[in-house]
Amino acid sequence: MIIPAYNAGPSIEAQLEALAAQDWDGAWEVVVADNGSTDDTVRRVARWEGALPKLRVIDASAVRGASHARNAGAHEANGATLLFVDADDVVAADWLVHMAGAARHPLFAGSLREAGEFDGDACAGLGRATRWSGVLGSAGFLDAAASNNLGVSRALWEQIGGFRETLVAGEDTAFCWDAQLLGHRIYRVPKAVVLYRMRSSLRQLWRQQYQWGVGSAQLYAVYRSVGAPRPSISGALVRWAGVLVSAPVAVFRPSARREWVGRAARRVGRLVGSMRFHVVSL
Q1: Within a 10 A sphere around the Cβ of 49, how many other Cβ atoms?
Q2: Are 103 and 81 in contact (CB under 8 A)?
Q3: Torsion angle defined by CA atoms of residues 48, 53, 54 and 57, in that order, rounded to the nearest 10 degrees
Q4: CA angle 40, 64, 146 (to 5 degrees)
Q5: Which of 39, 94, 171, 240 has its CA 20 to 30 A from that of 151?
Q6: Which portions of the chain are predicted below pLDDT 70?
Q7: Beta 31-34 vs 56-59: how paired, if at all?
Q8: β-strand 107-114 against 149-153: which pairing, if any?
Q9: In the prediction, which pLDDT does 236 show?
Q10: Where in the chain are the domains?
Q11: Which of 38, 144, 18, 29 is nearest to 89 (CA)?
Q12: pLDDT at position 82, please?
């Protein structure tokens, strides 16, 4: 199992605690790929050395980015199956049982549920299903799954060459597309649940969704030659209109503000990405 981590001190112990509580008696290991953290991430991980099987931290700081950290962790892992989770989420109590049961498939993915702000009993109640999808996975091309609840055989990971480290965002979507272009489908494991941590501030949410928007344009630029369809211009104009029309509502209604910030950031990111990668993906 690989966990990419960068300045994950405030959150990673919740994930490690959840992993330590997994009821599965097969052989497994936990590799934390530290992407150059400057906080106490490594020290916090060390607290769990006796509670998790073969837990170790590797230096994955050569290149900044979660894709490099995942690739570095996969290189160091020993198993024939690679499981990827994130340092700021929490796996549900029976997550490993269900993921291990799906390991006969070359590529498989669990489900995500929104957890909001974590508390001490984060795994007690699973939140509503998140609307997470691949950055461009619903655009009529190929299926996609998130890399914070993903399993892949080592053989397929090596065949693909790992996660694309040059992508701004959407490296998990790209990985899934690369696998499907090689003839492998994504096997879904709905009972393997990960509680997904939402961004806690509007600034963080804007940064995340903006990057996703830029990444969407880059994905189209990379995959249009193999059939990825260009996003509808008329649909984009409708969404831009929706962002503009709903702006006053977001100003005066805090409950609508986060949704608006996410939508606006994605649209701006797509515009910037279209210019950066010389495509039309508004």
Answers
A1: 12
A2: yes
A3: -40
A4: 90
A5: 39
A6: 115-139
A7: parallel
A8: antiparallel
A9: 87
A10: 2-196, 202-277
A11: 18
A12: 98
Q: What are the phi and psi torsion angles at 89 (to 5°)?
A: -115, 180
- Predicted confidence at residue 196, as pLDDT, reads 87
Which residue, chain included where needed, has tokens 């690679």? 82
CA dist 281 and 66 (Å) reads 24
- CATH code for 2-196? 3.90.550.10
In whole angstroms, what is the distance from residue 240 CA to residue 246 CA? 10
Q: What is the pTM of this model?
A: 0.89
Close Cβ partners of 110 (under 8 Å, ≥ 6 residues apart): 95, 98, 99, 149, 150, 151, 189, 190, 191, 192, 193, 194
- Closest by Cα among 270, 240, 274 to 135: 270
Q: How high is the pLDDT of residue 124?
A: 39
Identity of the residue numbered 5: A
Q: Which residues in 238-259 are b (16+ Cβ under 10 Å) and which e? A: ebbeebeebeeebeeeeeeebe
